[in-house]
Every structure is written in C-alpha cells, then in structure tokens.
C-alpha cells in the first residue's frame, strides 16, 4: 500500500475494519492511539513499554512540545520518533485545543491566535502555517489541521462563522504542508494531513462543514469539538448525522474519546481512530478498566487480595503483581504505582481494540457490542 492509502477490508452495519498506511508502518483499524503528550506517557511509561503494551499509534501534543523543549530542538535531535525512540506510526494534534482550553487570554484573528504560554506567560502566535511548521519539525506521520475549538453550546451564528474560518485555515494548512514536505531538510517528507469537522451541536452545520472539507480530498478526517461537556446521547447523535457525509474510503477519527463503551459505540457508528487521556489519567487515580467493569483499587477489600488486577490479563502488571501490592504503592504515594496502573489500563484499551477487530473479522461485532458496551461502563 502507498503511504496515505486506507483499505476498507470489511464492514458490519456501519462498523468498519480497515488498514491505513503511514511512513512508519501499517495501522490496523479500528485503533486507539496512546497519548504521550510531551513525548512520553504520563506514569513513567516509555516507547519500549508501549510496544509491549500493544500500542499501534503514539499521539503527542504540538503545543506542549513547542513550548518545551521547543520544536526546533526536537528537529535538531532528528525528529520526535528518534528523540523518544518510538519507531511506529505517530500522530500530532494541531495545538488548537490547547490554545483554546489553556489560554485564558487569547485573541482570534483571521491570521491565527495570539495567546500567552501557560508555562512562562510569554506571548505566542499560532495559526495554520505555524502549526504545520511545528508538526513538520516534530516529523509525525499524521498532522492535524489547525482549527478553532468552540465551546458547547455556542450561538449558531458564531459556530457558522467559526466553521467557515476553520475551512479557510484548512486550505492554508494543506498548502503549507505541501511546501514543507518538499523541503530537502524536512524530517518526514511523507507527513499526512487530517482535516477536522466542526459545527458544534448543530446538525446542518456539521453536515455542511463535512461536505465542504471533503472536497479537499485529504488522507483522513476527524470529528472535533465533541466530548467537551455535551451528553453522550448528543455526541452519538452528531456521529449518526455527520458520518454518512464523511468520505467512505478515508479514515475517520473521533478526537478525545473516550470510555471503552464510547469506543464500542463509536465503532458501531463508523469511527476508525480514537484517542483519550482517560486510561492513563484514571489509572493514576486508581480507577482500572477490566472486562467486568471499572475497579477502584483504593477499596479496602483489596488490601490483602493477592490476585492480579484482572485474572487472565496478560499485561506486565497483572503477570507479576497483586492487587494488594499495587494498592499499597498507590496509598504510599510510590511512583511505581503510577507506572504499574497505567500499564494495565493501556494494555486493556489496546487489547479492547484487538477484540473489536477480531469481532469485525469474524462478523460477530453486533454480539460483542451487546455483551460489552454497557458492561464495561459499570463500576464493580
């Protein structure tokens, strides 16, 4: 397969089984991308651990790496793959979400956004071209377009204008990426651009925006601006409305989602790519995902429980340590607790995707969804 090609192998209802080719390898979809914000998974998990945990795609954050250590430094070190020693596919977000969520003082103009760094307060300007240059310096396989992340709910006219601006910015992203990929010293000349669909919770704006950006014939398309406070029913409704208008033979990425149940439901509606900080963040607070539901390792009943977090789990933590021990580490504030708990949750998520792909291969996804979608959301 050529770089940027997406093979739709099989469908079951709206659910899709595919493969997407990048410069650093073939991604089997549906896939969950493991979030390594600043070039590392929070919880002392490195790139070699990710391999062992079944990660296919690592995701890093453009804004955070631009602020620290600086994307020019990452480029000098040979790009982010070489810097963090990850040799598989990698996606970088555009920095747009952080600009709009972290920056309390920001000014949006047609050129881009001026805001203050959350680290040292210095003024930063970021627009489509700047975001593409930073991501080019990082050398990811998939770069996300720079878009405006609006709040839900937002006034209709504002969302409409914002969609139009996001489209204009996307055209600029595409032109700048083509230029950057042609430079002799570019880190990854095969970097691919994904566009982002916006439109808040307005059906007509979502559909119109997807139809508009689909004309640009990009390698992939994301659904942005969801999982930001609206109910899951609203999110699922937007997916039902917009996905029939997404290009069929391009991957579809639901940004920042979500729980195991959200993922199963997203796959059922035709999503191929997912990412979320939930498995790592929840792990660090003692909330663990299992095939019976969500476990809180803080519970006193685990104090002398010598079983693994989940019987039969093949993650490095469950193969070696007991519930009692990891609970003790967490209670004692030991750094090791973070690593062991995060490893379990990431293994669970990556293994969940394996099971989803197997079910799609075998034509049994509907049964899998019926068995696990609700069950995985329950608290044990």
TrEMBL record:
The active site is at 93 (proton acceptor), 275 (nucleophile). It catalyses: 7-aminomethyl-7-carbaguanine + guanosine(34) in tRNA = 7-aminomethyl-7-carbaguanosine(34) in tRNA + guanine. The keyword Signal does not apply. InterPro entries: ArchSynthase1/Queuine_TRR, TGT, TGT-like_sf, tRNA_ribo_trans-like. Keywords: Glycosyltransferase, Metal-binding, Queuosine biosynthesis, Transferase, tRNA processing, Zinc. Binds 1 zinc ion per subunit. The keyword Transmembrane does not apply. It comes from the Bacteria. Pathway: tRNA modification; tRNA-queuosine biosynthesis. Residues 256-262, 280-284 are annotated as: RNA binding. Substrate binds at residues 93-97, 147, 198, 225. Homodimer. Within each dimer, one monomer is responsible for RNA recognition and catalysis, while the other monomer binds to the replacement base PreQ1. This is Queuine tRNA-ribosyltransferase. The gene is tgt.
